[in-house]
Amino acid sequence: MRESSDALVLLLAGGIGSRLNLLVGHRAKPAVPFGGIYRIIDFSLSNVMNSGLTKVGVLTQYKPLSLMAHIGDGAAWDFTGRTRGIKILPPRTGEKDSDWYKGTADAIRQNIDFILANPSEQVVILSGDHIYRMDFDAMLSYHQHKRADITIGMMVVPKRDIHQFGAGIIDSENRIVDWEEKPKVPRTNLASMGIYVFDTKYLLRTLARDRKEVDFGMDIIPRAIHEDRVYAYPFYGYWRDVGTIQSYWETNMDIIRENSGISPEAWEIRPNPEYGGRPMDRAPARFLPGSKVESSLISAGCVIEGTVLNSVLSPGVRVKKGAVVSNAVVFDDGVVGENAVVDLAILDKRVQVGAGAVVGQGDNLTLANEQFPKHLYTGISLVGKEAKIPPGAQIGRNCIVNFGYNDDSFNGQQVLADGQSA
Amino acid sequence: MHRHSTLAMILAGGRVDELGVLTHYRPKSAVPFGGFARVIDFPLSNLLHSGIERIAILSQYRSYSLINHIGTGAAWDMIGRNRGISILPPFKDYDNPHWYRGSADAVYQNLDYIQYYGPSVILVLSGDHIYQMDYRKMIRYHNEHDADLTAAFIKVPAESASRFGVAEIADDTPEGGRMLSYEEKPAAPKGRWASLTVFCFRPAVLFEMLKRNQQGDSYEFGRDIIPMMMRERLNVHGYKFRGYWGYTRTIDEYWQTSMDLLGPDPKIDLEAWGIRTNLGHRNIADRQPVKIGAHGCLENSMAYNGCIVEGTVRNSILFPGVHVMAGAEINDSVLFFDNIVHQGVRLNRVVSDVNTVFNRDVRVGAPQCEQPSRVSVIGWNNSVPEGLHIGCGCRVAPRIAPEKWPQEKLDDGEELR
User: Fold this and answer.
1) What three-state secondary structure class fits A409?
2) Does A271 touch chain B (CB under 8 A)?
3) Which residues of A fall within a CB distance of 8 Å from B301?
């Protein structure tokens, strides 16, 4: 059996991403739609593809069905053919002990058989949660050049943000000499991106050592930097962990902004246009007489009769006459009825906003959502998949309208005050 | 177990003088249409939705663009154990030295291909019309009436009938009837039904007719085969098509048919018709959504992913990747893939082929043209020099070398090669 010189990629796509609230109600975070036509995981998958890597294992756990359907056979990212492939690796029972994935290292440990079945000299471990563009081939060359056991992709972040990350201190050769996981008091501003290159044999030895070491950042890395060769691979460029509603919204808006540093097309990010098995392709976006669109991203299949400002529209969204959509992210096939207003909101797939309704009423952006004050507190309102907002209804700021909401369950209230959920 | 099966043969067309500039490097059926698709996607999508799974495309002219576009046929679900699209170019043979000498000759030269699949119905269609049709209905009519040939027709006004093959069809049923007479492009037409070049044949009869036709010196379905079958008093029926039919024979026709895509209730409804294209061709699938700038404006227009609109676009169609810069104005035009329109450009009634760049302050066409408005067409991979004025009804060939452009202007109706 030939030993492949292609590194094996393990993509951790199991996280809950709970701060994304309704957006991860029915799907894992990597499967959340983004930038009109993409899903968050398209960035990692495309980076892998564009780096020339052809064998991927995707470790799923939380609500994986959307993700599995989106990945399909991997054809969208060229992972098909006799020597290529993308495999979904869910937690599974076996003869010996097994369990849900308890941490990043534990997830990899439970898939040692996959690593053994796909021989390679290095293993690239990354998550499917982030928005960025990176050449892993360059990182692999760097890893080999440094004769490293582990190479960690790292980037400079403002010191006030370092508490969210694993933080490393390096010497003049970029070797990591000290490490702190989510430090309260920052000693460095070099943050781990959660992207690792491991020497395969080294990885297998390390994982076999102690099953209580379940997390790379908390367990494996701190020990390794003292005993082994661990290097930092510096990353410069746009990178976002769209883990909160606010950062998710901002990153979408960045695509519209000039000189923001993000450009999915220039980064060669590939969506999966076959998802959903529609019997026909989306037609070009139509801008009907009377429509007005400014500073926005409009996907094919949209039909615009009203006004759209500073918004990101996924395929098939219809904005009817007199409606105004602003500062919003609207997922596939949403309908904004005549004279309705949607402002500073994220609408999941197939939401219908009734005629004359308002989503994003009022100026009080700071009254946090009562049920989830840590999720919604900057003024953005969320409307879940397939919800129907009744005609004339008024939804305030930081509100949540649950998926499947419709007239019958509205309870006769026409107004949802700031911070309320329905 | 006997299964009824249909083999569809699409006449991909060749170079058409009137479409000149757009068919320099591709056959007529591969011309972009509909803001993201190609003309041939219309019959192909119709075949897909009609459940017809074996297709041959007869192509003779510059097949590369077409081959690229068809790919494996996966875009129209034409892959699998019993499904497939084959492109059949002309070939050298022991005793047949000929290129395809006509539509009937093209089918004749591929008789062994047809006989290999042994279909019970052969559907011959042109690849260059814009329409939606469920061929199963026509095939059912054909089988119910035990016809040797069923040809589809559309009613046209008397004045325009001379352009077509024209038939008189009996009023047997609302769907169709026996063909009572047929004339190819008659000066004084008897009938009012114009042939759509959609034919359903009984295979044994078709083979016989094609063999006999080889004795002659003209090999076209309309001009030769149908009249032959009428003379033989075979069972020939006319199928009455009622629906939109778009022609793309000339630049002006192409432009007019394109305009039928626009408006609140367009005559051509791409999604309702189920149109599919090859999203891999020219990387259509990898373009990001349309980006409209702070001063961008689109009125009664359509634009596909990859476009960047910072200027003004009215009553126009933008294919993927078109970049309209601030201060540019486009009216009543169709711009193919990846055109770039710089500041100060004014386009009126222009069809512009792939990758063409309109440098600053270029003018093509005018808001009011002197004669009945004619469309100007610009060939692909051109870089129209800054400040140049091109008139109405002009034709500019592909890839004009920098030194060949006129200094100031191209007059109405002029051609540049």
Assistant:
1) helix
2) yes
3) 286-287
By the 8 A CB rule, do B166 and B158 touch? Answer: no
How many angstroms away from the CA of A254 is the closest CA of chain B?
12
Among the partner residues B288, B294, B298, nearest to A295 by beta-carbon distance: B294
- Evaluate if residue A1 carries a pLDDT over 60: no
C-alpha A61/C-alpha A65 separation (Å) is 10
Q: Residue B106 above 60 pLDDT?
A: yes
Collect all residues with Cβ–Cβ distance below 8 Å to B46 and sequence separation of at least 6. B131, B132, B133, B134, B135
| Cβ-defined contact of B279 to A35 (cutoff 8 Å) | no
The set of residues, in sequence order, having a beta carbon less than 8 Å from that of B114 and lying 6+ positions away, is B7, B9, B56, B107, B122, B203
Interface test with A, best of B298, B316, B324, B335 (most A CBs within 10 A): B298
The minimal CB distance from B305 to the residues A37, A286, A296 is found for A37
Which residues of chain A have a CB within 8 Å of the CB of B298?
287, 291, 293
Q: B285 and A273 in contact by Cβ < 8 A?
A: yes
Strand arrangement of the beta sheet that strand B357-358 belongs to: A400-401, A381-383, A345-347, A329-330, A312-313, A296-298, B290-292, B308-309, B323-324, B340-341, B357-358, B383-384
Q: What is the mean pLDDT of chain B?
A: 93
Q: Which of A186-190, A269-273, B291-295 has the lowest mean pLDDT?
A: A186-190
Helix (H, G, I), strand (E, B) or coil at A379: coil
Report ipTM for this prediction.
Answer: 0.91
Tally the C-alpha atoms within 13 A of residue A178's C-alpha that lie toward its C-beta. Answer: 8
Q: How far apart are the first and last CA of chain A?
A: 58
Contact B93, B112 (CB under 8 A): no
pTM: 0.93
Reported as a single tens digit per residue, the pLDDT across B77-99 is: 999 888 999 999 888 777 777 88
The gap from C-alpha B413 to its chain's centroid, in whole angstroms, comes to 24
Q: Residue A226: enclosing H or E segment and its boundaries?
A: helix A221-227
For B380, list phi and psi in degrees, rounded to 5. Answer: -75, 165
**What is the phi/psi pair of residue A161, to 5°?**
-100, -10
At B43, give phi and psi (nearest 5°): -60, -35
Could you tell me which chain B residue has the CA closest to the CA of A314? B289
CA angle B69, B75, B78 (to 5 degrees): 105
Closest residue in A to B74 (Cα) is A274
Cβ distance A280 to B302 less than 8 Å, yes or no, reads no
Q: What secondary structure letter does DSSP report for B222?
A: I
> CB-based contacts of B115: which residues, under 8 Å, 6+ apart?
none
The size of the A-B interface in CB pairs under 8 A is 118
Of A37, A284, A313, the CB nearest to B302: A284
CB < 8 Å from B in window 62-81 of A: 76
Say yes or no: A268 contacts chain B, CB-CB below 8 A. Answer: yes
Q: Which residue of A has its CA nearest to B277?
A: A281
Distance CA B220, CA A162 (A): 76
pLDDT tens per residue, range A248-266: 999 999 999 989 999 999 9
Region for A41 from its dihedrals, namely left if φ exceeds 0, alpha if ψ lies in -120 to 50, beta otherwise: alpha
Nearest to A279 among B274, B295, B306 (CB): B274
Contact A295 B289 (CB under 8 A): no
How far CA A375 is from CA of A382, A403, A419, in Å, comes to: 10, 17, 11
* Separation CA B332–CA B318 (nearest Å): 11
Nearest alpha-carbon partner for B200 in B271, B133, B285: B133
Residues of B whose CB is below 8 A from A311: none
